Amino acid sequence: MDWPDLAGRLNGQTHELPVRVYYEDTDFTGIVYHGSYVRFFERGRSDLLRLAGINHADLRDGGRDGPALAFAVRRLNLDFLKTATIDDLLIVRTIVREHRGARIRLDQSIWRGDDLSVKADVEVAVITSAGRPTRLPSPAAGKLASLVSAGDLDQG
Predict the structure, then answer these.
(1) Where are the domains of the chain?
(2) How far is residue 30 CA from its own chain's centroid?
(3) For residue range 36-51, what is the model confidence (pLDDT) as tens digits?
(4) Which helix (H) or strand (E) holds 85?
(5) Residue 78: is its pLDDT beyond 90?
(6) Residue of 107, 110, 91, 97 lying closest to 144 (CA atoms)
(7) Quick one: fold of 9-145?
(8) What pLDDT, in 10s, does the model give residues 2-58?
(9) Strand segments (E) across the chain
(10) Which residue among 5, 27, 65, 87 is the active-site one?
(11) Is 65 assigned a catalytic role?
């Protein structure tokens, strides 16, 4: 079954992923638990890469004669601005700010309608299976470079 929008969509250089808040995402008050936002941001980053043609499974398998690669979050700063609750529809927006060597910087935000709920400043490292930083293979690096943006996620 083909669901082309399951991974969200690229709107220019901004990736947008809809996320519904389920009971499992909330704490006992019905408000989204802070750790759930980290998972939502991870989904946004993964689906951005997927739509750009960079697949985690291909990197993990190493390709032809290449090392197995993975992405590791090096730094994650979150700003919680407004709460979200059960059954809310959220939009996770992701922009690649910089890609240099083994480092990728991204800005992410989560919106509930016109309200900015959470902002994240993320730095990801490309690493080998031994945990050493490394560059992405040229084809993947080119795909990622085409997504680098100077856009602003604070605007809904």
Answers:
(1) 9-145
(2) 25
(3) 999 999 999 999 999 9
(4) none
(5) yes
(6) 97
(7) Thiol Ester Dehydrase; Chain A (3.10.129)
(8) 666 889 999 999 999 999 999 999 999 999 999 999 999 999 999 999 999 988 777
(9) 9-11, 14-20, 69-80, 89-100, 103-112, 115-128
(10) 27
(11) no
